[in-house]
Amino acid sequence: MPIQPGQQAPDFTLRDTEKNSVTLRELKGKNVVLLFYPLAFTGTCTKELCSVRDSLAFYNNTNAQVYGISVDSLYAQGKFKAEQNINFPLLSDFNKEASTAYDTIYEQFSNDMKGVSKRSAFVIDKEGIVRYAEVLENAAEIPNFDAIQKCLESIN
Active-site residue among 3, 32, 34, 45? Predict the structure, then answer.
């Protein structure tokens, strides 16, 4: 069932590119933006994450921690992060637990791949409540960052 604004955000623990564990419930007291994306090194994913990279000051000013999440390994994520100078954590959901909990999994993706994360955006407030949810079926689209930023301004 799709995640809806107003509900408690599903908890997860994932590894970042430095092999550190990141647990959502431990981020209470901070706004969180989760950006699920299909695959590192692809055109739209690169465009999306570099756009966030270039506007990270806005997120910092709204007390928001941004995380990019895909089913790529933490090693692939690390190389992608380094090559694109991504300045926020990328998390590996290699086992697809967070993507499944947030109902953001393609059953069938391009080239017969299964279990790839749908491009999605979630804003979670300081109490762990989802305030914005957008799950895109078309992987060529990017989230509505204007709406995400307005949501962050309203909850900050």
Answer: 45
